[in-house]
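Appendix B, Record 12. Input sequence as logged:
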Amino acid sequence: MRKTQLALLTLGATVLAGFATVTPAAARDYPWCAQGGEYDYPGECAYSTYEQCQASVSGRLLYCGPNPMYYAYGQDPRPQPRVHRRTRPATPY
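Logged structural output:
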């Protein structure tokens, strides 16, 4: 009887310690959201790049938009336009 009580007390303490150390999943807001259709605003914000978002929404009647949390705090996820520099071929003298 004494061993059973000790085993139950140990089990209870272990379970309680497990619950005390559990932390919620870290919520990360990604810069791009799949929006429209089955998603409410702001949408499914689970994409690091615009290309990932486009690949996910393809064929699903959805579109990609910037995450409003990023936009609200000044972290604009829109890609900056790339400057393409052309190089001239070397001209012989």
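The mean pLDDT is 75.
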